Amino acid sequence: MKNKTKIGIIICDRYRKCAGGKCFKAIQNRDGAFNIYKKEEELEIVGYTTCGGCPGGNIEYAPEEMKKNGAEVIHFATGFVVGYPPCPYIAHFRNFIKEKYSIKVIVGTHPIPQKYYDVHTKLGTWESSEWKELIQPTLSDEKTRLAYN
Ligand code: SF4
After folding, report:
1. Can you give the pTM of this predicted structure?
2. CA of 62 to the centre of ligand 1 (A)
3. What is the pairing mode between strands 73-76 and 104-107?
4. Coil, strand or helix: which one is 1?
């Protein structure tokens, strides 16, 4: 069994001051998008940065640094999907990183906090099939979403 995976995290620049509290909690608990990793599997964060601000100039370069440090997977932080509005470039960024760097991309880190879930549900933000797919890794259940409020 594989016992260590190296991952990079890219956050939405609107949350650039974020210290990563929810992401690192979710890594420890294997919640949200991190539930694809087994608890016995060590996760090493080999890069953590922002997209660089709209329209995401850092997406072009940050994965290269992460790859040099051994990143096998890049997670886009949950802020990409919960912002008001959510990032409109997610699909493009994901395709670009896969094509240029051959690194797996997962959309999301920690579970969607319930307060964001409630407002986006009222707004109808995630009703399309594309958005349903994008939020799937971080949707979690209500109890877990409340734990990340
Ligand atoms: S909305 Fe997208 S491009 Fe704009 S700052 Fe956030 S992640 Fe970057």
Report:
1. 0.97
2. 14
3. parallel
4. coil
The whole domain housing 105 covers: 4-147
Tens of pLDDT along 22-56? 999 999 999 999 999 999 999 999 999 999 999 99
User: Of 134, 59, 67, which Cα lies nearest the Cα of 102?
Assistant: 67
- Whether residue 51 has its Cβ less than 6 Å from ligand 1: yes
CA–CA distance, 77 with 106 (Å, rounded to integer):
9
Q: Which residue minimizes the CA distance to atom 2 of ligand 1?
A: 87
Residue 10 sits in a domain whose CATH number is: 3.40.50
Q: Is 56 in the pocket of ligand 1 (CB under 6 A)?
A: yes
Task: Show Cβ contacts of residue 76 under 8 Å, excluding neighbours closer than 6 positions.
Answer: 10, 87, 90, 93, 94, 105, 106, 107, 108, 109
Q: Which residues contact 1 (CB under 8 A, 6 or more apart)?
A: 38, 40, 41
